[in-house]
Fold:
Amino acid sequence: MKKQFLFYVVLIVLVSCGSIKKHNEQITKPQPVEDLRHDVDKVYNQLKKHHPKLYQYTSKEVLDFKFDSLKTSITTPITSREFYKKLAPVVAQIKQGHISVGSVSKRYTKKERKALKKRKFEFYDLEFEYLDNKLWVVGTRGKDSTFIGSEVLKIEDDIATNLVEQYKTRFTSDGYNQTLYNRAVSNHFSTLYYKDKGFLDSLKIEFKQKDSVFTKTFRRILRDEKTNKNDSLAKGAPEKLTKKEKQQNRMAAKRKRKENRKRGFITATKEYTRNFNFIGKDSTVAYMKIRGFSNGNYRKFYKESFKKIDALKTEHLILDLRDNGGGRITEVDYLYSFLTNKKYKLVEGSEVNSRLPYFKYLMSNTTSIVVKASTIVLSPIIIAQNLIKTKKKDGRIYYNFRFSKEKEPHPLNYKGQLYVIINGNSFSASSLLSTHLKANKRAVFIGEETGGAYNGCVAGIYKIHEMPNSKLKIRMGLMQIESSYKQTPDGYGIMPDVEIVPTIEDRNQHKDPELDWILNAIKTDEKLLE
Structure:
């Protein structure tokens, strides 16, 4: 029995290693022209089969032409990464922000992954922002703050602004919005560079700081190692704790875990997804920063926050949705219940292309064997649930969420003055929330047009399909998520009442022009909504 077990372990390891080697060879060698053209057809067919609003912003005739032109342009074998650079801009022409093409990445053995975890790439510590048509370093996650405030001139032999303009063609906002591009490039520049160039051990960057130009080579370096046992012995034995002190430490750690869970701790940036505090010496002005709707015990956070607001009779609430890329509709629904005093319905029935949207999602070719097997076993339940939740109307299929029903506002709903700060990275679910607040004239909006569309988006659940030859992956939403509020023309985001776009001077001087404007308006008692 033991020998048989070892045989299967060795077999799995060998198959895994073989699969990794085969994948890496596949993505690095030039692919035949016909194979790549087949992948183009595969991408377009998947979109036509599963996406319920494919031609919402770009007509079928135009998309047919663009995909045919892409096929015609492939005349010589190219690698998967080069194919990605051709395919992504064409897919972006659909102008649906939740559709994306993933680049290909090298796979690693367990031993290689273990070695890589011991090192970090210094380049990934830099935080970028594209302002005034230039790429700047505005922050760092590392210890070296030398580069903050520097303009990035060149990365290796590429002019930084040229890279930015290239990357902006490889993704899209919803519809015809333009504000998302600069903001998305800012937040994801390192990821976009990796998709473009692949794995690197070093990178030379040319910076400009005031009138000085200098270069720095960023490398993969060893991560900071924890102090080992020998070091602790050299410093002396640690002080022994009493039973009471140990118990206090455990209780403190437990409270910290609960707080991290409630506010949604982000390990990579050491930030919280949700923050709440009062600005100034009293409780007149409350500030709530929500970075996303995707992690943590949000119900407890909002209930506690609005309980404080209600108890302290807070007059002004600032809701900061800048760089909020969206997330769970459940959280948006719960938050909105605190911001309205009227009955509401968050979304309409969502248009889908199948009576079995969840079954299609679970059975994608990128889904693990375990998930597929579980789906097959549970298929009677999944299929029954899908059929109950979907219905046909006027020749179209709609999926009814529980958010499609009318609800009462929360008893602790806030009735004071509400300000909402938005920018181009306010997307998806955060745009859905903003649509309701804007349509009901519930808030004053400050900042810039949201990257997410006012009239809705195709999201909900996602299908990720891998192409057979290039191994690129296409990701698409399967449900049209929209509220009952609409604006004309379609294809634009929620517009601010007061437009404010930050500059590099604001960043260098640690100013927040949007927040400063609101605080000044409160101070001068300026009325924007009657």
Observations:
- The longest helix spans residues 2-28.
- The radius of gyration is 26 Å.
